[in-house]
Amino acid sequence: MIRIKAGVPHGRRPRTSSRPSGCALTLGLPTAWGAVAVSYKFGCPLAEQDGLGARIVTSAVFFAVGTGLILHVRRALLRELRQARKVAGAAQSVLLRPLPPRLAGLNVAAAQLSADRGAAIGGDLYEAVATEHGVRVVMGDVRGHGLAAIGTAAAVLGSFREAAHDEPELGRVLGRLDRALARHLRERARAEHPASGLDPENPVAEEFVTLLLLEIAGDGAVRAINCGHPWPYRVSGAGVETLSQADPLPPLGPFPLPPDLATVPCGHLLRDDSLVLFTDGAEDARDARGRFFSLPQALSDAVRDRPGSPQSMLGAVFTALLRHTNGRPTDDIALMVLRDGRRQRVASGARGPARPCAAPPQPTDHLPQRLP
């Protein structure tokens, strides 16, 4: 954001920019080194001699000048790299802002591992917010990488952060996200092909987002809507099971949402239970022999001795992932752990451990129509 100041407060001297001095230093040092080499070549009598000693001295002078130029360029490149990393870190803190460790009675931890070495952000997205309707969570994966995927993730996350508070029904939240994605893709296609001036019928045919919306009510009831995303795992004690066996909807983007959209009831989150949300990069990771990474086994190993905190679970899983892939994952990986941190939870109608619900979803009448 650019801020324009109308004036300088009385008694305070205006700050002068260090940019001109930095540019002068960047251009001045190579010029000075070049001047030294030229002055030696044409002004020093030793440079005109053909003896071995004179040649050695001349070579040493030019070697020193060349080394100085290389070191100066290296220092400038490292300075630019540090600045780029600062910008990437700031962008990540805005796009995937750090989650609070506690959220409405839940202990929360989330992290992302980028497949590109040195990259800070990618196409994975996640967020968790406490609302008057319960804790609402989104986990998604944008197809592809690069700036286009980051822009799509930003559009979906921005819409979720508003709709999660505004909409009483989870289906209406998904409707808002679907319309925000369609609008973003139309605007991107118009920017990429501005000649016609018209909105394309299919802005980006191959662009889509897999998405999971989760809602945890105050009594621990869990409801979800899944659009082509892997179902989370429920960790109870040392047991790991899939949250639901219901068929997911298609990903957002290529197809319109069905008119009879419904949430899937997934039991209750009981005391000391954990929900682990992830992107498909976690289970698609392979080792040198082509074997897939077993996320349920890694979660079971992480809580075998004692139920640890969400942060310790994340650390154990990421350590196992990096060991499995020899430190070179081929896809972005995002993980989020939600753990019931309340001393006692009163769950209406829930007795004993909760089980994933395999019943078909029930229709709802609260989904807004998709915009053209």
Tally of extended strands?
11
Span between N and C termini?
32 Å
Question: How much strand content do the residues show?
Answer: 15-25%
Strand order across the biggest sheet? 1-2-11-10-7-8
Rounded mean pLDDT is 75
What Rg, in angstroms, do the CA atoms define? 28 Å
Shape: elongated
The percent range for helix content is 25-40%
Number of helical regions: 7
Poorly predicted ranges: 1-20, 344-372
User: What's the story with the biggest beta sheet?
Assistant: 6 strands, antiparallel
Spell out the key features of this protein:
disordered C terminus, 11 strands, alpha+beta, five-stranded antiparallel β-sheet, disordered N terminus, six-stranded antiparallel β-sheet, 372 residues
Describe the structure.
This protein is α+β, with helices and mostly antiparallel strands and 372 residues long. The chain has 7 helices and 11 strands. The strands form 2 sheets. A 6-stranded antiparallel beta sheet has the order 1-2-11-10-7-8. The protein has a 5-stranded antiparallel beta sheet with strand order 3-4-5-6-9, covered by helices on one side. Helix 1 runs antiparallel to helix 2 and helix 6 crosses helix 7. The two termini are 32 Å apart. The N terminus and C terminus are likely disordered.
